[in-house]
Design a protein that fits this description.
The protein has 413 residues and is of the alpha/beta class. It has two domains: 251 residues, Spore Coat Polysaccharide Biosynthesis Protein SpsA, Chain A (Alpha-Beta Complex); 117 residues, no CATH class. Helix content is 43%, strand content 14%. It has 14 helices and nine strands. Strands 1, 2, 3, 4, 5, 6, 7, 8 and 9 form a nine-stranded mixed sheet that branches. Helix 3 links the parallel strand 2 and strand 3. It is globular. It starts with 14 loop residues before the first helix and ends in a 17-residue tail after the last helix.
Length: 413
C-alpha cells in the first residue's frame, strides 16, 4: 500500500497467463495437509504471507525477524517479491535465513508496482489462506495465529479478515500522521471501525488482510496492473471479488505496526497519485465510486473553457496553483509538531485539493488545459481555505509562520 512505484503495461497482455497459472495451482486446494501442492513431501503451510518489496533494505530485516518471532506452532511461508529495488532489498531478502517459517524470494527486473509483484507471488502460494501485507508492516507476535483463528470461525470461502494497521510505539507521530489515520481517514479508516463488523470492498487494505485461496481462483485475473501507482489496485480487485461472495470482517486482534513516516509533502504526493488512480478505477467501474470529485471529473473537459475564461478575466490567477500549493504546504508543515484544533480542517482541505488535482490530471489529457484547471481549482479552494485558517488562527492566538506570503480574504498574494 505505501510504495509509490511505477508500473509497466496493463494486465490484458498477460491476464490469460495469470488465469492459467491460477487454475493449475488452485486445483490442488484439496491436497492432503502433509503434502505440498507440487506433490513433494514438504509440509504444506497453513497460510502464505504475500509481501511485495521495494527499496526497503533499511527496515526489511526487522520485518523478517518479526515473522520468526510468531507465537504459532502452525507452519507458514512468506513469499517476498522484490519489485526491482534500487537498494539492497534483494540482498537482504536472499541472505536472510528464517528458522520459524519458509521464505521464498523472487525478483522483478523491471519496476512494475505492487500489483504485479503480488500477482507473481499468488500462484506460488502453498496454502489455503493468503495474507497480504506491506514490507513496512511489522507483525505483532500473535499476528499469524490471530488470522488463522478467525478463519477457523469464519470458514466460508468469501470471508476475508482485515486486521489493524497502526503506527509503532517507537516512531513518533507528527500531526499529519495522527490526522490521516485518525479523523481524516485518508490513509486507513480504522479510527471509525468496530470489531467484528463487516465493511465494504473499499476497505480491502493489502497492508493486513487475509483471504481464501479459492476465492481468488474465482476471478479471471488478480491485481490489475493498469494501476501504475500503489492506490486502488486492491480496491478494484475487491470490487470484482464481491461478485463472487467477498465479505470483509474487521478484527483489531491481528496488528501490524506501520513503519512509514509521512510529512504533509509526502502525503500530498500520495493523495495526488490516489486521485489519478481513482480515475482508472472509475473507467473500469463507472458509477461505483460515490466520491463527488470523481463524479465531477467526468465533466472536467466541459469545465476547461470556463477555467480559461476565468483566467483570462483574472490574469493574476495564472500560476495560482503552484503559488498556493507552496503556501499551503509551508503553512501545514509549520504545524508538523504543533497540534492545534484548526489543523484537521486545514489537512482535510489541503489533501482533498491534491486528490482533485490528481483527478484532473487523470482525466484531462492535455497538459496546458490541465494547468489552467489547476490554477482555477487552487484559486477557488486553496485561497479561501488558507484565508479562513489565518483568520481563525489570529482570532485564537495561534502562531503563524513568519515571512510567508499568504492570501488574505480570499485574494491571491
Amino acid at each position: 500500500m505505501s510504495r509509490a512505484a511505477n508500473a509497466g503495461k496493463g494486465p490484458t497482455a498477460h491476464a490469460g497467463e495469470i488465469h492459467g497459472r491460477a487454475a493449475s495451482r488452485f486445483e490442488s486446494t484439496s491436497a492432503p495437509a502433509a503434502m505440498s501442492s507440487d506433490g513433494s513431501d514438504r509440509v504444506m503451510s497453513s497460510i502464505s504471507v504475500i509481501m511485495p518489496c521495494h527499496d526497503r533494505a533499511r527496515d526489511l530485516r526487522r520485518v523478517l525477524v518479526a515473522y520468526d518471532h510468531q507465537d504459532t506452532d502452525q507452519t507458514f511461508e512468506v513469499i517476498a517479491v522484490d519489485d526491482a529495488s534500487t537498494d539492497d532489498t534483494h540482498r537482504v531478502l536472499s541472505e536472510y535465513r528464517p528458522h520459524a517459517y519458509s521464505l521464498r524470494v523472487e525478483r522483478q527486473d523491471v519496476n512494475r508496482g505492487p500489483a504485479a509483484a503480488r500477482n507473481r507471488a499468488i500462484p506460488m502460494a502453498e496454502s489455503p489462506l493468503l495474507l497480504f501485507v506491506g514490507d513496512d508492516v511489522l507483525p505483532e507476535p500473535d499476528f499469524i495465529r490471530r488470522h488463522l483463528q478467525i478463519h477457523r470461525y469464519q470458514p466460508d470461502t468469501g470471508c476475508a479478515v482485515l486486521g489493524r494497521v497502526t503506527w509503532p510505539d517507537d516512531m513518533q507521530q507528527n500531526t499529519l500522521m495522527t490526522h490521516i489515520d485518525g479523523p481524516g481517514a485518508q490513509q486507513f479508516s480504522y479510527y471509525y471501525f468496530q470489531d467484528g463488523t463487516e465493511y465494504d470492498f473499499r476497505h480491502f487494505y493489502t497492508a493486513n488482510i487475509s483471504v481464501k485461496r479459492d476465492l481468488l481462483a474465482s476471478v479471471d485475473h488478480w491485481f490489475d496492473t493498469d494501476f501504475t501507482y500503489a492506490a486502488f489496485e486492491d480496491t478494484e480487485l475487491a470490487c470484482r471479488l464481491v461478485k463472487h461472495g467477498l465479505r470483509i470482517f474487521y478484527s483489531s486482534a491481528p496488528i501490524g505496526r506501520h513503519y512509514h513516516y509521512h510529512t504533509v509533502w509526502t502525503f500530498a504526493v500520495r493523495q495526488y497519485r490516489a486521485g489519478m488512480m481513482a480515475c482508472v478505477f472509475d473507467r473500469k467501474h463507472p458509477g461505483v465510486t460515490r466520491r463527488s470529485s470523481i463524479a465531477v471529473a467526468r465533466d472536467w473537459r466541459r469545465l476547461a473553457p470556463l477555467a480559461r475564461a476565468y483566467l483570462a478575466f483574472r490574469p493574476q490567477a495564472t500560476g495560482a496553483g503552484e503559488r498556493l500549493e507552496a503556501a499551503a504546504l509551508h503553512l501545514a508543515g509549520f504545524y508538523e509538531w504543533m497540534p492545534n484544533r484548526l489543523l484537521d480542517g486545514l489537512y482535510v482541505g489541503l489533501l482533498d485539493y491534491f486528490w482533485r488535482k490528481g483527478v484532473v490530471d487523470g482525466t484531462v489529457g492535455d497538459a496546458r488545459t490541465a494547468k489552467g484547471i489547476h490554477d482555477y481549482l487552487a484559486r477557488r479552494t486553496l485561497a479561501p481555505l488558507l484565508a479562513g485558517f489565518i483568520r481563525e488562527a489570529q482570532g485564537e492566538g495561534i502562531g503563524l509562520p513568519e515571512g510567508l506570503s499568504l492570501p488574505v480574504n480570499g485574494r491571491l498574494p
